[in-house]
From TrEMBL:
Gene: asd
CDD domains hit by this protein: ASADH_C_arch_fung_like, ScASADH_like_N
Annotated EC: 1.2.1.11
Keywords: NADP, Oxidoreductase
Protein name as annotated: Aspartate-semialdehyde dehydrogenase
Family: Belongs to the aspartate-semialdehyde dehydrogenase family.
Boundaries of every Semialdehyde dehydrogenase NAD-binding domain copy: 10-133
Any one Gene Ontology molecular-function term assigned to this protein's record: aspartate-semialdehyde dehydrogenase activity
């Protein structure tokens, strides 16, 4: 084992060869606290090296630290910290087994998001929801990301709750094809086209957003109307939000509200004043963790605000969210131990 690895915390990535698993591995490669010690995928690939088995889609080369790591069957993973990039159908069975053996599972799958004892964690919004872990009976725990579109919706909405009570939010999404995994949509279906439906997505946006923005036990109570669209761009989810408040709001306060959050979370929000920004091709980097917000405007009435929010669906909405959740959980557990 290399000297630098002895000073870091080992973790496992399961579902390592997919787009989310690859992004997680790339983001962990230079992480100051963690390193990838185990990788796992389907039983058919067990025994192959990562380099042999993966169709690498990240910028640059495969990190040398994982090239020769051999893929394990998922049931043989034994690290305390696990990033799961498994599909929900597989996660439903595998992730509780990992938690039962003592692993903290940071999952991208939707399988457990709506379980009452499992937090959908966005640390900048609802770090207190980690108290739900105390209700989980297993020695390990399951902590979920939100849906990758929900991450940008919730992060855009939560600061605006300072303006007053929200009554209703209209949501129209434009979601990149990488959000469907790889391989996914046939090029003949998406090139030069927009698909105005993604199975299960509208329901996830409603229920997950309300759970995240509520308390540990009670979801938020405002209404949400959603239309989703798959659009022919590779990376970057965009959403148009029209937010209806119970009373009039001053749109000139909005920039200051977002910028004040950057004092606690540097770089979390990037604000644009040009009428044609933000744009995925111009404004999103491959490991971008920011929420890009523009086109802020008053609606037809003074209790309505409209805006555009956008972000990297893999680096912030999926794999990067797991990494941030892992960092936040370790800090939360450490501070809790110190208090005790």
């Amino acid at each position: 084992m290399k000297m630098f690895e002895q000073e870091k915390i080992p973790l496992a990535v399961v579902g390592a060869t997919g787009l989310v698993g690859q992004k997680a591995i790339a983001m962990i490669d230079h992480h100051p606290e963690f390193y990838v010690a185990e990788i796992a995928a389907s039983d058919q690939r067990a025994g192959q090296t990562f380099e042999e088995s993966v169709c690498w889609r990240e910028p640059g080369d495969i990190p040398k630290s994982v090239c020769t790591l051999k893929l394990k069957p998922i049931k043989e993973v034994n690290n305390r910290y696990v990033i799961s990039a498994l599909p929900a159908s597989v996660a439903q069975e595998v992730e509780p087994a990992l938690a039962s053996q003592g692993s903290f599972v940071f999952t991208n799958a939707s399988a457990f998001r709506m379980h009452q004892d499992v937090p959908i964690l966005i640390p900048e919004i609802n770090i207190d929801h980690l108290s739900l872990l105390e209700r989980q009976k297993t020695p390990g725990k399951i902590i979920t990301n939100s849906n990758c579109m929900v991450a940008f919706i919730a992060l855009a909405l939560e600061p605006l709750m300072e303006l007053g009570a929200i009554e209703h939010v209209s949501v129209v999404t434009m979601q990149a094809i990488s959000g469907a995994g790889y391989p996914s949509i046939d090029s003949i279906d998406i090139m030069g086209n927009i698909i105005p439906h993604i199975a299960g997505e509208e329901e996830k946006i409603i229920t997950e957003t309300l759970k995240i923005l509520g308390t540990q036990t009670q979801p938020a109570s405002f209404g949400i109307t959603v239309h989703v669209h798959r659009v022919p761009i590779l990376h970057g989810h965009t959403v148009a939000l029209h937010i209806h408040f119970a009373s009039s709001v001053n749109m000139h306060d909005i920039n200051d509200i977002y910028l004040s959050r950057n004092q606690s979370w540097p770089g979390l929000y990037r604000l644009y004043h040009e009428v044609a920004r933000p744009q995925p091709a111009r404004d999103i980097g491959p490991y971008d963790q920011s929420v890009h917000i523009g086109r802020i405007k008053q609606g037809a009435r003074d209790n309505i605000i409209g805006l555009i929010a956008m972000g990297n669906n893999l680096a912030r909405g999926a794999a990067g969210a797991s990494v941030r959740n892992m960092e936040a959980t370790l800090q939360y557990n450490s501070s809790r131990e110190n208090r005790v």
